[in-house]
Amino acid sequence: xxxxxxxxxxxxxxxxxxxxxxxxxxxxxxxxxxxxxxxxxxxxxxxxxxxxxxxxxxxx
Length: 60
Hints:
Blueprint: H1 16-38, H2 41-57
């Protein structure tokens, strides 16, 4: 038996506003990450990770 084509495409292309929204959200996320790095949060996060790791292994 042959399958009948359902008339639906495997996926529908995104509307233009959805693509623009995706790009804007990506840029906003990158801006927040950079803001956190420049405010010194990266060092704080690294130090917390080191302390947690030291406690788990039992070195500290």
